[in-house]
Amino acid sequence: MLVRRTKKTCSFKIYPKLAESEIQSISTTERLQAMELLWRSFSDLEDEVPSPDWHGDVLSKRLAKVESAEGKFLSLSELKARLASI
User: Fold this and answer.
1) pLDDT tens per residue across span 34-74
2) What pairs with residue 14 in β-bridges?
């Protein structure tokens, strides 16, 4: 088993060098939980995994649109429909 849930901490131990077939063999819920833990682990490494400069540029442009009342927002249902059409 490549992901094991521990009862005390509700955390997962992920074993090194996983084959894609092994990952596919666990439930979707377990894969999402493992992915969430991986993303969370990157937040502790902010200085080691810098965001590319273009991320700041995009965020600045979006903030400027919101501040100038030009920003357009989607409802959750609109977002889901948009993503489903991709």
Assistant:
1) 899 988 888 878 788 788 899 999 999 999 999 999 988 99
2) 3
Q: How far apart are CA 63 and CA 41, in angstroms?
A: 27
Task: Look up residue 53 and give its amino acid.
Answer: D
Q: What percent of the chain has pLDDT over 90?
A: 44
Long-range contacts of 40-44 (CB under 8 A, 24+ apart): none
- The mean pLDDT of 18-38, rounded to a whole number, is 87
Tokens representing 16 are 């090194």
Determine contact, residues 59/71, Cβ cutoff 8 Å.
Answer: no
3 and 26 Cβ atoms separated by less than 8 Å: yes
